[in-house]
Amino acid sequence: MVLSLNSTGTQVTEFLIICFPGMQDTQHWLSVVLAPLLVLALGANFVLLFAIWQVASLHKPMYYLLAILSLLDVILCLTVIPKVLLIFWFNMKSISFSGCFLQMFIMNTFLPMESSTFLVMAYDRYVAICHPLHYPSVITEQFVINAAIFIVLRNFLATLPTPVLASRLNYCASNVIENCICANISVAKLSCGNIYLNKLYQFVSVWCLLGSDLVLILLSYCFILWAVIRQPSGGAATKALSTCGSHLILVLFFYTLLLVFIFTNKKGKKVPSEVPILLNVLHHLIPPALNPIVYGVRTKEIKQGIIKLLRYHY
């Protein structure tokens, strides 16, 4: 049953996710791209996590931070993409009321957690390059524990009201979500009540969390760039720029994809509805697929650790 009767009339008990409203007959072809990307993202992150867990030389704070990032990527992938593929392949569009808001909570919490992890990793690189003598005493295992607690508590407390506010709305009419996921506004606009507070809180929380992270990350890389330029050793400067440059590109890609999604959503009817929906899905898939490759495989110690594991097992 989709609707149940109560004292106020009908009440939604589950939602139907239809993904792309204007592409119902052809949207399943997107799985040709999404499925391999999912396999790549999960495979690369699991290999990275396994290598960091098994190889003793990788038991260092900077790699623990990378493990946190990989764990967040895996959770985000598994929260969104399998359900999208089930819709494409088996037309399994229904999702329970509680399941929808659980998905909304995970997405709204773990994406800012990933942003905060990028911030802590940028600080790690800042200390390593700008204050190398202080690095062993500043970036310790206790620092990673404190950073993890900060990442979880900050984003959990700041984003929890978003799904709570949405779940307390009265859903008494349509239960069809014109999106591939239970995004806050896509769900809230199905209610019979006023959703101004929902929109306002999401806007403020997103810009406060992700906006502050982005400013501090860019500031960290500005200090890094200035320190690298001043280094007398050209080889060391080139290596630092190569490493930090690839990291910064990935961080900017993460935020750019998010900003494009936000602004295309704001444009409303000027942009086809399929565009923000697709960007929302890709934002939960492309960064998780690229992060372990750029942060992990391109790092000499991790590459050696993975090779060591392969030689040991085969």
Set out the fold topology.
Elements: E1 3-6, E2 9-12, E3 14-17, H1 31-54, H2 61-90, E4 94-96, H3 97-130, H4 135-138, H5 141-159, H6 161-167, E5 176-177, H7 184-188, H8 196-229, H9 234-266, H10 274-283, H11 286-297, H12 300-313
Parallel strand pairs: 3-5
Antiparallel strand pairs: 1-2, 3-4
Helix pairs in contact: 1-2, 1-11, 1-12, 2-3, 2-5, 2-11, 3-5, 3-6, 3-8, 3-9, 6-8, 8-9, 9-10, 9-11
Description:
This protein is mainly alpha-helical. The protein has one domain: Up-down Bundle (Rhopdopsin 7-helix transmembrane proteins), CATH 1.20.1070. The chain has helices at 31-54, 61-90, 97-130, 135-138, 141-159, 161-167, 184-188, 196-229, 234-266, 274-283, 286-297, 300-313, and strands at 3-6, 9-12, 14-17, 94-96, 176-177. The strands form two sheets. It has a three-stranded mixed beta sheet with strand order 4-3-5. A two-stranded antiparallel ribbon has the order 1-2. The protein is globular, with a radius of gyration of 21 Å.
